[in-house]
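Below is how a single chain appears once it has passed through the pipeline. First comes the sequence as given, then the structure the pipeline wrote out for it. We keep one example in the README because the format questions we get most often are answered faster by looking than by reading.
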Amino acid sequence: MTHPQFDRITFDPNIMAGKACIRGIRITVALILNLVAGGMTPEQIIEDYPPLEIEDIQQALQYASWLADEHVIELKKAAA
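Resulting structure:
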């Protein structure tokens, strides 16, 4: 099942336990986000993960942005 806007993001219970993946391959959206957050450029990511394309990385970031915008979770303030 995919959102029409996210044609490169796939969910398959037989691949990575149903996590959001890129085009049905065993590369998760979470992995891409962690690599970007760790300072890797799209070019570096593609060098390390040759099945990826620049559009995959862009869509992973767009998907994460969409999720962050659509789902609000109220955080409780930590006790002092």
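The chain has a mean pLDDT of 89.

See the next section for the split statistics.
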